[in-house]
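tool=predict chain=A
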Amino acid sequence: KTADIMTQPALGFSYSRMGMYKECPKKYEFRYIYRIPEKPKPYFAFGHSIHHSLEYLYSVTTPPFPTLTELLDFFEKDWKQLSWQDKGYQTAEKEYAAFLDGKKMLIAYYNKHKDTFHIPLANEIRASLKIDGLSLLSIIDRIDYLGDGKLRIVDYKTGKTIQREPDQLYMYQKVLEASEDIKKVVQKKDKAVKEIQVAEMVFYYVPTLKEIKFERGSDKVIFDFWQTVLDVANDIRAKKFEPTPSERTCRWCDYKNICPVFGGKGDNKPETQSLGAEVNTDKEITAEENLANKIEEYATTLQNAKILKEEIISLMKLKKVESFDSKHFTASFAKKEILNFEDKEKVMKFLKEEDLLSKTLVPTQSTIEGLMTDDKVSKEQKDKLSSFAKKIESIKIVLSKLKK
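tool=predict ok
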């Protein structure tokens, strides 16, 4: 199987991609070939904020670890990065209920482990590997070093505690044990190490604080698992994208309106969507397709930039610096205080009493904030209005070219 694919370009691959293909090849085609994004899902947003908060908790290079208050503050700031609509919640009330659930989970996690916090070998690490014609990317929540080249993989779960197959962990084992980069990280900690090996793997369910442990996959287990991976990769390369409908997979699918099972023209590229880089075609790309490709690339770049920004801010805060030089750029903080007008009823009442409502047209966050810089609004009115607001620190990164 390996020989069949070595002459072809490396296929971008991950456990989540494989999982979606096994769920429904047509869904995979829509998502990763045509690159049609799925609708926001609340459980994705919730999981992201919990994972991000645990990453923050374990990101210290030397003790002390963040306090519980600092952890909860971080979670709240991360949670507020997106609106409830952008997170996919049906109402603001449901989003707030999920926020409170997240705080409870983090409080319980912190209290259970506060006496045994340790600095992991790696934290939310992006491990990549090119092997057998695949370009693998695995984002591993936490790797603990057990000594003597032995590793422990921890994968956080924020859903229901269920018995899962360890296939995802086998993927991580395959990537880690073949990664020279991970070996170098271990050797910095333990110079005597010649080889690294995954000794233990854990699904950690944050809502219940329950660990489900697995031993390292044997050579035969990993071999059999890898044959399944190569089978899926070969089917993707062969463009086998027939739908596999079922009540479970179709009920919540975002692509029903274009899926052939439900009357859509799923055998053709949707006119308003762009083709991904994985599509091979001899047809000349039209101006519309080129524009769509550029929009997709731009959107992806912005999304990646947002994630990087959060990581840079977190690390600079950890280092307690407001300016840092890289190879070619200097990154520095530009801080701005934002007034968050949460009590809309109190603000509306004040605007009516002071005859300021007409100035805001529609009293949104931005229009109300605009009053604070309006010369025609008195200082007393501004002071009173600001008393209704919660002050939030806004930080942006300013890059400047290093002087030679």
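Residues 270-284 have pLDDT under 50 and may be disordered. The two ends are 51 Å apart (CA to CA).
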